Amino acid sequence: MLNRALYRQRQRGLSLVELMVGITIGLFIVAGALTLFASSLLENRRLIAQTRLEQDMRSIADLMTRDIRRAGYWGNSIQGTLAIGATATTASNPYVGVSATPSSTSGVLKYNFSRDLVENNILDTNEQFGYQLLTTGTKAGVMQMLTAQNVWSDLNDANFTVITSFSVTDSSPPALSLGYRCPVMCAAGTPNCPQMFIRRYDIVLTGRSTLDASVVRTLRTSVRVRNDQTTGSC
What transmembrane ranges does the database entry give (predicted)? Predict the structure, then answer.
């Protein structure tokens, strides 16, 4: 009888208290695992948003930098610096103009360069370029590039990346007098005395990811126009 009672005591299983304690511990483990999984998903989402934002902004900045450097290119630029003959005069560069609208949030930059296979010395409609940021309407937050007269192309998809600020600052140094190069030297400031303008523009882009509003990046770049602007003549 004693052995039978001992056998039954060993086979009675878990008590209700032991079962509840085990379930509670299991729930804590599951909750911890779910929390870790959710945190990993959130971090992965933030990393994807950050990578997409940085890639979009870098692509825009690289495109702007390479293209703006071409501002003022003219196939017959020698005509603007050299006049052969007693009555000859130098020609004006039709592509020289660069228009920068300074703004801390929505600047505009426009410029021109020649695309002629045979230079025609005329500013054509397909030789006008620029950048602007839309701040209102259905395309608010979209950066656009001017690819021809009144033809703007989107550079980013606002469903993923919103450009919140586009700042343009003209950081060009003072004009450099070239009067000392003339056969008869002219002093700086003398009417029509030749000058050279070195043009540089500081650009700041700020963007935000639509996938994660906490992901915000700012990118700064400085662009030096390769074709210096000259005015006046000897």
Answer: 20-42
Q: What is the dihedral of CA 134, 139, 145, 147, to 10 degrees?
A: -120
* Element housing 56 (H / E): helix 16-68
Q: Which DSSP category does 180 fall into? A: G
Angle at 201 between CA 195 and CA 204, to 5 degrees: 170
From residue 157, give the alpha-carbon distance in Å to each of 57, 80, 135, 143, 203: 11, 42, 14, 9, 20
Distance CA(130)–CA(110), nearest Å, equals 4
Coil, strand or helix at 157: coil
* pLDDT digits 0-9 by tens, 105-164: 788 899 999 999 888 989 999 999 999 999 888 899 999 999 988 899 999 999 999 999
How far is residue 180 from each of residues 98, 127, 148, 194, 208, measured CA to CA in Å? 27, 34, 39, 9, 51
- Give dist(CA 191, CA 168) in Å, integer: 31
